[in-house]
Amino acid sequence: MAPPPGFLPQLVVDLNADPPKLSEYLSDPPVYAPNGGTFHNGLIYWGASGGNDSIGGMEQRVGIQTLDPASNKTTTLLNNYFGYYFNTIDDLFVHPNGDIWFTDPQYSWFNALTDTAPQLPAATYRFRPSTGSVHVVETSLRQPNGIALAPDLSTVYISDTGAETGSISPLLPSQGSKFNNTGARYVYAFTLSPDATYITSKRAFYLSQDYAPDGLKVAANGYVVTATGKGVDVLDPEGTLL
Fold first, then answer.
1. What is the pTM of this model?
2. What phi, psi does 165 have (nearest 5°)?
3. Rounded CA gap, 239 and 224, in Å?
4. d(Cα 92, Cα 126) in Å, to the nearest integer?
5. C-alpha 150 chain-centroid distance
6. Helix, strand, or coil here: 79?
7. Range 112-121 burial, b when 16+ CB lie within 10 A, else e
8. What is the pLDDT of residues 6-35, one digit of tens each?
9. CA-based Rg of the chain, rounded to a whole angstrom?
10. Which of 150, 181, 221, 240 is a plausible cystine mate for 155, CB 3.0–4.6 Å?
């Protein structure tokens, strides 16, 4: 769900409290509409999926940011592709080699989280922070959404939520999005190359039983977890709904 314009704090659940406590959290500097958080080497990696002039009179660029929980400080790692704005940066994972793989659908425009119409096609990328290089790795999905890496590092899962999409025109404000049950709502599996730089062998893994698979995680036992319309779907390594 998109935050209201100008709303910066994030809602965080404290699982150490009994019962768990829901509270607001604000980093320094703030990150508007963070998405797809993951923890790696002591840092939280976020896709900053939105930005408009309702937040301090300037547009935050969509990008990848890290949060140091110890200092509460955030750092921008990436916010453009050769000068072009990213669309959303919806989900990401960090490979053990340090590369960040992320999806870039167009939902920030549809949800009015950005004032800039999409400048790039929806795609999936690999970013190497040590060199600053960005490589596009997948372009066939209509709206790539969740992305996750199998524990054995052999498989990359990406969901396509193209069943939920909208129109794009730089001459018009956001027109929102609509859901079409016959559109793409799949999870795909890809084979990760031995050097972990590209993916091959795209294969259908799961068709969402309800709405679309929004976000992905893989458990230590290989189970794939994805958020759907009314809850969470748990899939075994063969793609069977449990």
1. 0.93
2. -150, 175
3. 8
4. 9
5. 17
6. coil
7. bbbeebbebe
8. 666 677 888 888 999 998 888 888 888 888
9. 17
10. 150
